[in-house]
Design brief:
By secondary structure, this protein is α/β, with parallel strands linked by helices. About 25% of the residues lie in helices and about 30% in strands. The chain has 3 helices and 8 strands. The chain is globular. The chain binds copper (II) ion (CU). The site of copper (II) ion has 6 residues, from loops.
Length: about 150
């Protein structure tokens, strides 16, 4: 019995180590402009990640924040709520679509979409209607969402 238990313990340890090693950090810049005529932007605004990864929002310009779009956020994951004029970050706990907005510039289209693994909240994405000027940019993000 003993060698078997040891073997399974080793397997668990190895699995954990592999998980920790593969978790990546991603960075999204919060900016007034992309330098190409697009204003109030997350850069990049579309990102594919894996569950376990960390996404960091780095404030380059002031008067922005990064927070969850509540309608596009996997159930059971604490919604991101970055403060104005601060960096923010969250750990992608589950597979899914994660919608991000800047609070003051939401209707101007300051949005981002993060896709983690094989999303389980497709129905949220399908039901979501981006407000005002965000619709055009959100549609552009959806076009990038290819398997
Ligand atoms: Cu903003």
């Amino acid at each position: 019995m003993r060698p078997l238990r040891l073997a399974s313990l080793l397997a668990v340890t190895l699995t954990c180590a592999a998980g920790a090693a593969s978790a990546a950090d991603h960075e999204i810049k919060i900016k007034n402009s992309n330098g190409k005529g697009k204003f109030m932007v997350f850069e990049p605004d579309f990102l594919k990640v894996e569950p376990g990864d960390t996404v960091k929002f780095v404030l380059v310009d002031k008067n922005h924040n990064a927070e969850a779009i509540a309608d596009v956020w996997p159930e059971g994951v604490e919604p991101l709520k970055g403060e104005m004029n601060h960096d923010a970050e969250f750990v992608v706990e589950k597979p899914g679509y994660y919608g991000i907005k800047c609070h003051p510039h939401y209707t101007m289209g300051m949005v981002a979409l993060i896709v983690a693994g094989k999303p389980e909240n497709q129905s949220q994405l399908d039901a979501y209607k981006a407000p005002g000027g965000a619709k055009k940019r959100w549609d552009e993000l959806l076009k990038q969402n290819t398997p």
